[in-house]
Amino acid sequence: MARLGTHAAHPCHALPWRARISDREPARASGALVFSPRRAGSAPPARPADRRRRRRRGGADNGGDHPQSGGWGKLRTREPGAAFGDRRTRNAGGRNILRQRPPYPDPARIVTVHILEAARVLTGRGQVLTPGTVVLTDRRIVWVGLSRQLPKPWAAVPATARIRLPEATILPGLIDAHVHLSFGGAPRPPVALLATTRMEVAATIHAALRQLRDAGITTVRDLGAPRYIDSSTLADLDAGPRVLTATIPLTVAGGHCAGLGGAVSETAEIDQLVAANATRGADWIKVMVTGGFTTGGRSSPYEPQFTDDQLARIVTAARAHGLPVAAHAHGSAGIRQAVGAGVDSIEHCTWMTPDGFDLDHGVVREIVNRRIMVCPTINHHARDATGRLPWAVRREQLRVMLDAGVRLIPGTDSGIPQTPHDQYAYSLPIWTDLGYSAADIIELATAAAAQALRIDHLTGTLTAGHVGDLIAVPGDPMTDLGALTTPVVVATAGHLHYPDTTTTAEENTRP
Known about the structure:
Strand content: 15-25%
Radius of gyration: 24 Å
């Protein structure tokens, strides 16, 4: 029988449907719609005396906490609040969940279902479903399609359990490929982190993750953190964005961001720090090939910091741990060095020299041939840039690289001074200056970014089996990219959140 408890009113009517299969577990939240396979008040069916209760072992395939080591092709990642290889959305009790009638038998747990219906659904693969529906169960996507084709098991779910967004668009969650969670966006250089405690930096990181989530960003690549911050710190915030972390960036003594604790020079030091980063849970290795603008001293953005042999050793050490390498490089000499060493991504890539700029077309061709991606770190005020890197010059550089076939991905460098973490969507319209259409930019910020970061097996598109990372925005972002700045629903690994409130969808169902 079914019972419906009281729940807090919400404009989206986001009451999750919970199929309660076993009376050994109570419903997780009061106010949930609960289905039971037996009548209320009746005794549970007796088990045969000789029947043994089987328990499934945890693991990468059965919901255990064992992150898959994807080696060179797929990255190890941590989904907030969920195991990496959980197949529960595709499998319930050993049978296909979509082929069963409600309630879906699962003797071990409760299954939470969210059905989101919108005027249009952008799958991230160039497909537009009008109107469209997305079904989330147990933190993953299990069905995406036209609303009129919703399978009977999901069509039978009560209307009160659905999230109806008749004027909105659902699309994959946004991906920012270059952030600094521990910097906070305050007008102070990263060296100021030397005067902060671990707890203070952790608080800054958690505030940044909340900002990112509210802005509809469901995955970030954090390219540089202090020596005492590791993957456990990033995992503390439940229902936050997925974080691909580089932990401590490698630099030289007195070099760019040396205050984060990653100064190395000897081969043994390089090997030790790369190994330590891998142990801390790094998904990427970050190396400061050139100096930067936020660090003084011997840090020059125009010149390489490492010798060719040192940089080659860093790449070799990263390969030994199955990790790709992201190279911070402003100066043309550093970009040439990074390409020669075989890095996997170049951050900034501004082609600067002490006297101006020197875009090397031969190096650009080599970037294309080696399939190195470039994250130009375009933030929301890029068009207003003057001085050392005026937008007119930068725009021409990016057009040359784009025309040559360089793979560009969006990232904002958020966390540096005057660049808050919630401005990503405001930076995306700037990409139209490079010839991208709105549809191209949406794909660039979702599916293309996921592929470039080697997590397209997890996220980036609305695909059955992928993690439940999505956003809903008012109107149609295909005609107005500004819609991306005001998401009304954000799902990170299936956790629903409303940016205009401080509660999750599950909490909104409580009396």
